[in-house]
Amino acid sequence: MALKKHGAKFDIFTKVAIVAVVAIISLLIVVPVLSILFESTKPTGTNVFKSVFSNPVIRGTIKNTVWLGISVGFFGTLVGFILAYIQVRVEFRGKKILHILALVPLVSPPFAFATAVIVLFGRSGIISHDLLGKTPMLYGYPGLVIVLSASYFPVAYLNLVGMMRSLDPAIDEAASSLGASKFRIFRTVTLPLLIPGITSSFLLLFVEAIADLANPLVIGGDYMVLSSRAYIAINGEYDVSAGAAYSALLLLPALLVFIVQRYWSQKKSVVSVTGKPSGQIAPIKSKVAKAPLLIFGWSVAAFIVMIYLAVILGAFIKILGVNNTFTLDHYRYIFSGIANDALKSTVIMASIATPLAGFMGMVMAWLIIRKLKRGADALDFLGMLGIAVPGTVLGIGYAVTFNEPLKIGGITIIPQLAGGGAILGGAIAIMMVYTIRSSPAGQRSGIAALQQIDPSLDEASASLGASGSRTFRKVSLPLIKGAFLTGLMFAFARSMTTLSPVLFIATPETPILTQKILAESDSGRYGPAFALCTLLIVIVLSVMGIINAAVRGRGSTEFKTTLVAG
Amino acid sequence: MWARVKVVVERFLMKKFLIGAVISALGFSLITIGAAPANAAGSTGRSCAQEGLVRKLSGVTYTCERQNGSLKWGEGRKLSGSLTVVCGATEAWCGAMTSAFEKRTGVKTSFVRLSSGETTARLEAFKSNPEFGVWHGGPVDGFGVARIKGLIDSYASPSRNMIPKNYKDADGYWTGVYVGALGFCSNTEVLKELGVAVPTSWASLLNPKLKGQISTAHPATSGTSFTALWTNVTRMGQTAAMAYHANLHKNVLYYTKSGVGPVAIAGRGEVGVGLVFSHDCVYGAEQGFPLKVSFPSEGTGYEIGGVALIKGAKNPEAAKAYVDFTLSTEAQNLGVGVGAYQILTNPYARKDSRMVKLAKLKIVDYDFDKAATSKTALTAKFDAEIINRSQAKS
Amino acid sequence: MKSGRLELKGLVKEFGKGQEVVRAVDHLDLVIEPGEFVTFLGPSGCGKTTTLRMIAGFETPTSGSILLDGKDVSSLTPDKRPMGMVFQSYALFPHMTVAENISYGLKVQKLSNDEIQKRVTDVLASMSLDNLANRAPNQLSGGQQQRVALARAMVVQPKVLLFDEPLSNLDAKLRGQMRAEIRSIQQRLGITSIFVTHDQDEAMSVSDRIVVMRNAIVQQVGTPTDIYRAPNSVFVADFIGRSNFLKVTDISSSANGSADVTSLGKTFTVPAHVDAKAGNSLLLVRPESITVSRQPIAGKISGEGVVKTVIYYGEHVEYTIDTANGEIVATTSDPSPAEILAVGEKASFSFEANRAWLLPKA
Predict the structure, then answer these.
(1) Whether this model's pTM surpasses 0.80
(2) Is this prediction's ipTM beyond 0.85?
(3) What is the distance in angstroms between the Cα of C93 and the nearest Cα belonging to chain A?
(4) Shortest alpha-carbon distance between residue B168 and chain A (Å)
């Protein structure tokens, strides 16, 4: 990474951009998080902190949270690793299909997994009970681990596939020319080289798992974790300070792990320094090794297919597994008033927030890679806070910060943005959440793209007399457009499917789809919940399709090869 | 020279603006004054067909009242703006009610479905800046708590007259819109597999074979679940009731947030028995779930689902009109169409065979006022002695 | 009046902070005349690229100033400086065609479309790129990309052209061709040019003057002949071309650029650097100035030794000779086979006194 950066004085555009993004991020995430910390120091909040030492219930909740994180981190990474290994190192038919299936859970709405797992594998599940005659107990730890691992393993998978592909095959070849067997190479060369990737995946999944709120609410049973405890404190007991305290407890491990994860993922560059692979890794041919790997891979795929079938079919069937007659009632029901407004407002808000998030992510990436020298790491960290801070914490932070207008000396600086009675029905706060939650995806893909592009392109533009903004518009942005659109795609998917942060600031005037799904599944009306999930999946997939087509349309193949070669 | 001209011109414009403002203000008040008598000249005082009827005529909403024994249209209300209802019944029922009201009056009406405990907590949190105008649905025990906390206002709806005395608060803080009885909601297939008969007594729920096979909501969030708790307190005294629920806890799978939740959980066969209001179970069975309603022989409790005006409601006229509307025959008849089979409080409302017959049940002497005053302390006790103790063990 | 006079005054650039400060450029003073072609030459890390980037505006000097035609441009951002730069990686915009790349800077200047069209056509023709106008950069060869990069920098008619090791990505043959091309274009247009390279051949062949840098400090500034024939230090002598350094036992008198020295047991007069004093000086003799023969050559200064290695290159032979003075390298051009000495043979090495150069050690 021999990237040279400008040591020159910043032009006006750069200065404005730096000030603007720092201000925006401060408003969108730093202030809410600080408000939480402040709010949690109020009496009922400090009670929570005190009872961490005295109250076994709270200690149990913390223990549950951490244990859940570790379990999901372990199982999710394991599944992701095996699938990645199969993808990169094993030759078989249907590779592409397995790849797509492994990524599908990335666009799943909250609850889709939990509810489908209950219908399929619950006590009276179609598969567990009706087919196998078993009555497994899913509510609580086992259900959570299954559902969360299944929902989040694609994160580990993506991470590890990328890393395995970037391993120089020459290293493997060297080991094998020294007489090492395939398994020995795996054990002594491949695995150690992948340890940074494995660790960083584990930590990412840990954070996702402890931050998740939707699943503990539906399938958690009595297994109380910090996020659901904070939810109950806020939405059940309306004790904001206690809720803030629980989320502060949640924030601590999440941020800690995030920082450690950054450290690990930066180590990754040790591996990728070797550059582009010079040859092709010899695929695994031995049937003894192949068979169990493939059986495992296709089982995971089958599981995912079943889940999605349950969701899609469940939306058209009276009561899946109980009364299997075809019906459109669920759709009729959700369109009779449950979903119309929510659908409209969610799509509108996501559509406004998505480009904002994408643009902000790109500006961040550009500043980090091209402009800043000393502050780059700090800015990168600041930008990534949007996903490092658990959604529950963010949502509560917004509720605490924006439910009242911010006044300085009697003058309203920021009007009330969230909660009932807020301007535009609280839509602004929700879009702010969407933006800050999604921009890290844009930032990451922007950084990855910019790192592949020769920094002297920017300098060339500047030396030809182009201003900072012109350089960004005419050179940097077109070059990272592909990444930009991909970032947008994930940003949109993320906005549409996000629940935990918006749950706390959703208002009657601005209903949100995921919140409606929660209401439906909490009341046990899985049919309508499935119908809403299907709707959400269809919307997300079609937008992704449109964006994908746009990427293809713009980036001709020659342009892409330049990117790689450059 | 030019500066002087500018000043003169500015002064002139300023004066003109002020004069304009005064004229338009005068004009506006004249229009409003002129409009008031027009209202009175509308339907007010004319006779009407049925008590509680709501109708809108040239932008003014009237309610049919009983005045000195005869039915007449009451004072008209010119309604506008929007209204948000916090609703404790099912989404479908809340949706039907609010959209019917919107159609009838033109007030843009939305709702948020919240459980009883959540509503009280949320009302309290936004006490200084209420989000909601009306609380509609959910056991009145919760309304009692809200009254104690100063979250709801009394409102003497003219339509209250027709509601039976025992279904409304003497001081006018809440009025009953429906009545439901607590019952057991059993999944016959699951019970058959377990070899357990459909439970017909509170005692039979403690059957060890039903371990993890009972679903109920949490009494702090759900009014339904609190009704069950208070029923047992009434039936056997507080100490014995707590002991009973501690025993029952061993058989409970987990506590849901909303009171209706257990119907679907039992319906899908995740548990054998759900502890719910019987009308929700009837609806579940109608959906195709293998569910059967039964009642405890020792006596069961019941709820009055209420409606109340929120204190400090933003659009009080619309909120009051909504309360009036919920008591009307038209509104109450909406329930059956969306699968809500509660007994209706409006004596003129249509009866349905799927509604429970209270007279045939053994009902405990449920004291709603006492339930309300005890609610906060009792749910805290439930949390401390039953939920937390078991959590600490795990 | 020709413009493009560049003046660097006390230029300092430091990186890092606290105890970690590294000085990349240390008090550089230099005046570059309009139309002059000046090359910064030195090993990697000597500060030459940093200097170039300071001139371009990509780095801000820690102290010192940069004057263009008497105006201080130090505080201007790169886009405000009338300079064009050619990058090591060419930095062609991959999403634009050749013509679009070249017209980029003209569009920035908001020239009329006709003017842009005309200038682009002209420059394409002069660089023989006319038939490539609509190609994408990745469809060009390295040499063509290099030309486009040059055309793009020149077409905006900058006052100064900056070259950051522009030829290092080309193969040897193309490199020679390109540097001739760059030199001829530069001379034709008379644009002040600054070129950075670590390749001495490149520096020698294109420059009016060469600035040799080492460890952030300018070692010597001079014409290629000066630098080669009269280096001011062992470092410069060693870095440019190959050198033999003979010990000097005595310097009896030195004045007017010459000195009487005693070396190899003989006393003779050689051209000398002003700072060359007794006790701190060495005598530089370039390998091509030395003739290796079996017998000493009359009239030349000569010494004795034993042939250690012989490498035959065809047009010349390269000897390494073990002597009392250490190893001496000598090349003999156009040798007849009979004259070539064998390893182990006793040899004489001779040079003319006026081809040697007395320079200070440090």
Answers:
(1) no
(2) no
(3) 6
(4) 27
